[in-house]
TrEMBL record:
This is Substrate-binding domain-containing protein. Gene3D superfamilies: Periplasmic binding protein-like II (3.40.190.10). InterPro entries: ModA/WtpA. It comes from the Bacteria. It comes from Serratia sarumanii.
C-alpha cells in the first residue's frame, strides 16, 4: 500500500500524534502529516497540492474543496470549543469574563481570520458579544491582535503552545483559542484557562474529506471508536452521531 499524505489543522497536532501512531501500527501504512492553519492548507490544495486526506478545524474549508470537485463528501469527525487563556493574575481570573474581555487595558490576541478557523471563531464570539452588549463586540474586533495562524505571522517555536508563547513573551494578556488545549495549558502555573459560558460559548465542528481513495482506511480509523477515544483524551468532544 502506498503512503498517505495528510494535511491537518494545527490544533490536531497533539491528538493526531498518538492517533496516527495507532493507525500505522494497525494498518502498516505510513502517514506523513503536515499541520498548519486549515485555511492556508486549503489554499495549497486549491493551488494544486494533493494530500490524500484533509482534516480541518471547520467544515467550510473541506466543503469548498468538495464543491470544487477536488474532494469527496465532508464528514464531521470531532468537535471543539473556543476558550479564553489569560495571564494568571486576579484581575483576569476573578472578574466575570465579559468584563475581562471588554477591558481595553488588556492586550487580546487571536489567530488570523480566514487563514485559520480559530480566528474565524473569535470573530463569531465578537459578533455574539455585539448582540448582547452593543458596541462591545465591535470594540473587541478592533482591539484583537491576529498574532498567529496567518501567512505572514511569526511562527510559534516548536514545542510551544500559542497561548503560552504569546502571554509568556509579553505579546498578549488574553488569547482566544481552543478548549482542547486546556489540559496542556494546565501545566503552566502562570496561565489560567477560562471557559466561555452561554451565551458566549462558541462550538467548532471539525470536518475531513478524502482526496484519494487510498486514505479511506485512515478516515475510517479517525471516525472509529478507537480514533474517537484518542481525540476525546486530548480534549476534543465526540462528533454527534
Amino acid at each position: 500500500m502506498s503512503d498517505i499524505l495528510l494535511f491537518a489543522a494545527g490544533s490536531l497536532r497533539l491528538a493526531f500524534a498518538p492517533l496516527l501512531s495507532a493507525f500505522q501500527r494497525r494498518a502498516r501504512q505510513k502517514v506523513t502529516a503536515e499541520f498548519g492553519p486549515a485555511g492556508l492548507l486549503r489554499q495549497r490544495i486549491e493551488n494544486g497540492e494533493r494530500p490524500q486526506l484533509f482534516a480541518s478545524a471547520n467544515v467550510a474549508h473541506p466543503q469548498r474543496l468538495a464543491d470544487l470537485g477536488i474532494a469527496g463528501a465532508v464528514q464531521i469527525f470531532a468537535r471543539n470549543r473556543l476558550c479564553v487563556t489569560v495571564r494568571n493574575v486576579p484581575a483576569l481570573t476573578e472578574r466575570p469574563l465579559p468584563q475581562v474581555l471588554f477591558d481595553p487595558h488588556w492586550r487580546l490576541a487571536t489567530s488570523t481570520p480566514e487563514a485559520d478557523p480559530s480566528g474565524d471563531y473569535a470573530l463569531q464570539l465578537f459578533e455574539r458579544c455585539e448582540q448582547y452588549w452593543s458596541g462591545q463586540g465591535e470594540a473587541l474586533r478592533r482591539r484583537a491582535l491576529p498574532l498567529v495562524g496567518g501567512r505572514d505571522s511569526a511562527p510559534v517555536p516548536a514545542g510551544r503552545l500559542a497561548a503560552e508563547y504569546l502571554i509568556a513573551g509579553g505579546q498578549a494578556d488574553i488569547f482566544l483559542g481552543y478548549a482542547s488545549y486546556a489540559p496542556a495549558l494546565a501545566a503552566y502555573p502562570t496561565l489560567a484557562v477560562r471557559p466561555l459560558a452561554p451565551p458566549l460559548d462558541i462550538e467548532a465542528d471539525y470536518g475531513l474529506c478524502l482526496l484519494d481513495d487510498g486514505a479511506q482506511r485512515l478516515a475510517a480509523f479517525i471516525l472509529s471508536e478507537q480514533g474517537q477515544e484518542i481525540l476525546s483524551r486530548h480534549g476534543f468532544m465526540r462528533r454527534a452521531e
